[in-house]
Amino acid sequence: MIMRILGEGQYEIAEQHMDQLNELDSALQSAADAGDEAAFTSALSALLDAVRSLGTPLPDEKITPSDLVLPDEGTSLTQVRQLLSDEGLIPG
For residue 68, how many other CB atoms are within 10 A of its CB? Predict the structure, then answer.
């Protein structure tokens, strides 16, 4: 799966890491649902850090459609709430 972090770049994520990313996404969803700004900021940072560490960065010159676009760390709780589905940011 190809994930893009807005303003940063794309990462190729192996299927074996999706359960871990979904757990982090669930924590983000819970924090957003609760309106807990501190927990939200921490959960978003943890999710993005995991994508960066588990994923393989794609070269900027390689143009590949993203399967999923994630907000950057500067995105507000209100903005992320608009992006969330019933399954969070990461379906599955």
Answer: 17
Q: Is the pTM of this model over 0.70?
A: yes
Place of tokens 């990313």: 21
57: left (phi over 0), alpha (psi -120 to 50) or beta: beta
Q: Are strands 2-5 and 56-57 parallel, antiparallel or unpaired?
A: unpaired
Kindly tell me if the per-residue pLDDT of 56 is higher than 70. yes
CA 83 to chain CA centroid, Å, is: 11
Provide the strand spans (E) within the chain: 2-5, 9-12, 56-57, 68-70
Q: 47 is written with which tokens?
A: 């999710």
Q: How many CB atoms lie within 10 A of CB 3?
A: 23
50: left (phi over 0), alpha (psi -120 to 50) or beta: alpha
Sign of CA dihedral 47, 77, 90, 66: negative
